[in-house]
Design a protein that fits this description.
The protein is of the alpha+beta class. It has a single domain, classed as Roll (Ubiquitin-like (UB roll)), CATH 3.10.20. It contains two helices and five strands. A five-stranded mixed β-sheet has the order 2-1-5-3-4. Strand 3 (about 50-55) and strand 4 form a beta hairpin. The longest helix is centred in the middle third of the chain and has 11 residues, at about 25-35.
């Protein structure tokens, strides 16, 4: 199991939960599992979110492994130039 911490508008898409425990071995598996459990979050995950695994930030890394017991933070991506 991993612990997923949600921030911003992502929380409202999972009924206001700040943290969720879920089974996943990669970021892609995490996104699929969250989309299956909370269908409203799927489109937002597909549009892109920032992912931090145990404090290290990843973007566009669906195959990135998530170690068991990890803490994963999902945050809306911040645009800029």
């Amino acid at each position: 199991m991993i612990r997923v911490v949600l921030t911003g508008n992502l929380r409202r898409l999972v009924g206001g939960a700040r943290e969720i425990e879920i089974e996943a071995g990669t970021i892609g598996q995490l996104f699929r599992a969250l989309g299956a459990r909370y269908p409203g979050i799927g489109p937002h995950l597909e549009q892109g979110v920032a992912v931090a695994i145990d404090g290290e930030i990843f973007q566009d890394a669906l195959l990135e492994p998530i170690p068991p017991g990890a803490e994963v933070h999902l945050m809306p991506q911040i645009g800029g130039g």
